[in-house]
């Protein structure tokens, strides 16, 4: 009986090795997996794509903190709402069945209107009453739970994909590859980030946003309508979050808790780049995305977010204000 137990593994080993031995004897090449350099290049490409998507969603989060010093824990739900609203217009049987492009544009508009409505309906009255930041932060947690479960009821628990650009062939980039969908998403995300940078640097409303972020009281004394600037920031944040949600749902999958899963990485990108700095959020998010994907070369995929956060901790130990943040005196 003992010999019979040993015979089965031995026969299996022989059956696995004979084809390889015969292939070498006949001069045929045995297929090999990609080299480490090829896998590293592929991880870098995936990391840049992931990083720019995180950057789109985190810029608004950083601008909100810069203008009113509020940590918006419900920002991840804006990402989910943008993705699921586009899904409703694109795929759902109850929707109009639009193509993904107009559905995505409508989702951005809806996200901007939602951001403006939240500011006018919740945050402006709380600010007028002098509500403390800690209390407002707790309100953002409650708002996050409400919005997440509303999406759960309306959308359901089953992940799904958009109707277009689902299955595509890969474009070879040397040893690595990328699909036309992912390449388009990456380029569009970069263009959007450049557009946000141009908006902040070259427009009057952008100058006003930077002035309020730098010194709210001085900006108000200079004649800037702070409430209008804050409303604009909330609408911009909502629109960018919705667009990031569509992009993330396009390259990954649409689910009811996708924004909550991405929220930790958004916070990591904002803190790593420097609290309140839109450009810092872009740089920090790109670093987080690349580190998360590159870590899969050595560690399990389940730990990729953890290693991104470890890098965040290490950088903050050396530079507490973040990559592009400014050191400030306390007291």
Q: What's this model, at a glance?
A:
The chain has 331 residues and is mainly α. It has twelve helices and two strands, in the order H-H-H-H-H-E-E-H-H-H-H-H-H-H.
Biggest β-sheet: count, sense, barrel?
2 strands, antiparallel
Number of helices: 12
| Ends apart, CA distance between termini | 80 Å
Taking all Cα atoms into account, the compactness measure Rg is 24 Å
- Strand proportion, as a percent range, falls in under 5%
Estimate the mean pLDDT confidence: 82
**Helix residue percentage:** over 70%
Strand neighbour order, sheet with most strands:
1-2
Please give the number of β-strands.
2
Structural class by secondary-structure content: mainly alpha
Order of helices and strands: HHHHHEEHHHHHHH
Subcellular location: Cell membrane
Signal peptide: 1-25
Pfam families: BPD_transp_2
Keywords: Amino-acid transport, Cell inner membrane, Cell membrane, Membrane, Signal, Transmembrane, Transmembrane helix, Transport
